[in-house]
UniProtKB/TrEMBL annotation:
SUPFAM superfamilies: SAM/Pointed domain. Belongs to the Tim17/Tim22/Tim23 family. The keyword Cell cycle does not apply. This is SAM domain-containing protein. It is a multi-pass membrane protein. InterPro entries: SAM, SAM/pointed_sf, TIM22. Keywords: Chloroplast, Membrane, Plastid, Plastid inner membrane, Protein transport, Transmembrane, Transmembrane helix, Transport. The lineage of its organism: Eukaryota, Viridiplantae, Streptophyta, Embryophyta, Tracheophyta.
Amino acid sequence: MGGGKQGVMVVEMPNSSGQNPITQLQNKFKELEIGFKGWLAKQSLPVEAAVVTATSGLQGAAIGGFMGTLTQDVSSSLPTPPPAANLNPQAMASFQQAQALAGGPLVQARNFAVMTGVNAGISCVLKRIRGKEDVQSSMAAAFGSGALFSLVSGMGGPNPVPNALTSGIFFALVQGGLFELGRKFSQPPAEDTHYARTRSMLSSLGLQNYEKNFKKGLLTDNTLPLLTDSALRDVRIPPGPRLLILDQIKRDPELRKRQG
């Protein structure tokens, strides 16, 4: 008789935790993003500015390349004046502007890379130096990106420098207006005004999910210079984010001054 115990085959199903694969991928990406931002925050200003400019430029190039595929047909339909054509400077400048705005994928990738890369690089430098993001920094970054875009794209025509200044001023006014408009329509509740600097710091580190921990512990902007590891532990913030937050506070010139 086969009275022996029969073995039971246990088949381990993939993803036994029951977590959605998309959620797992998002969490993994979030961990990489937090790690990258933490590494970047520890670098010197030139390194951080170079990395931010390069990564933003690559993102802009990808967007510009895609947009260029949509405008390629328009660019090819523009008539090309013969070399001997006697066009007045105003007509030639208008033609160059049309080419810059309706270029193919490579042209638009270059233009968008310049705009996004320069904007992000200047914003990064001003944020590290001034310790905050405001409308002045936003307009300065937009001016630089607009001026360089004008020079690189050839939209300046026969007067590149004056037109570059004009484009920079236009970009600065538009971005400054959008910054103020966005701030006006996204005013936080009255109690959240005590966490404005905290929110900005957590967002720059990719740790915005821990804002609620700060609020539960009443760790307002005024307490930032006083924060310790034990205080962050009391509001249930894990070790990794605690280290990033304390390191960021040490690097902030204004908070360092208040600590002293």
